[in-house]
Amino acid sequence: KQEVTQIPAALSVPEGENLVLNCSFTDSAIYNLQWFRQDPGKGLTSLLLIQSSQREQTSGRLNASLDKSSGRSTLYIAASQPGDSATYLCAVKTGANSKLTFGKGITLSVRP
Amino acid sequence: EAQVTQNPRYLITVTGKKLTVTCSQNMNHEYMSWYRQDPGLGLRQIYYSMNVEVTDKGDVPEGYKVSRKEKRNFPLILESPSPNQTSLYFCASSSLGGAYEQYFGPGTRLTVT
What we know:
The complex is a heterodimer of chains A (112) and B (113). Chain A has 112 residues and is an all-beta fold. Chain A has no helices and 11 strands. Chain A has strands at 4-5, 10-14, 19-25, 32-38, 44-51, 56-59, 62-67, 72-77, 86-93, 100-102, 106-111. Chain A is globular and about 40 Å long. The N and C termini of chain A lie far apart (41 Å). Chain B is mainly β and 113 residues long. Chain B is built from no helices and 11 strands. In chain B, strands 2, 4, 5, 6, 9, 10 and 11 form a 7-stranded mixed β-sheet that branches. In chain B, strands 1-3-8-7 form a 4-stranded antiparallel β-sheet, with no helix packed on it. Chain A binds chain B through residues 31-32, 34, 36, 41-46, 49, 51, 89, 91, 93, 96-97, 99-100, 102-105, and chain B through 31, 33, 40-45, 48, 50, 58-59, 90, 92, 96, 99-107, 109.
């Protein structure tokens, strides 16, 4: 059974820092991995999707990497801003037609 | 605009009173799914559908029903809601080809008293 872990549960950093959010998963036979952002009381916004054959994806200040063999993904946020404050969720799809298995998220606070 | 919509966004009801949460997507996606999100438990899948008239249970299906009569709609039905179904519910959809990226609705916050 796939399990996804995100540690720590919460993180507070000063504005301008470059930071890395970690995600680990137990079954390396994944189809893809998605990073989402969730603002308080709101829905999930897809940030980046990495296919199993890819090593990384980039969108603006965000870069996500995938190392299937070690069961890890990282989300790199460059030059963090207060507007980046949110919960970041990692989710893994183990097959083309399978569900997403979510981590519990990392709540990020960027201090002005 | 490509989107997944849910209604209502907020609902307070009493134990045993049947309710339906609607979900609709305009992306012609085959796959649709319902999740619930609870503090400390994260997001868990309730039911999913691979296409019209094809539905299957997720991890936590007890107390819920779904139907998929049209491709764009996937309502979630609580026949007899109980307080342990108080939660934040999300509908999601994706294509069954390409990247399989899932798109989520804005969520429905349900309180059962």
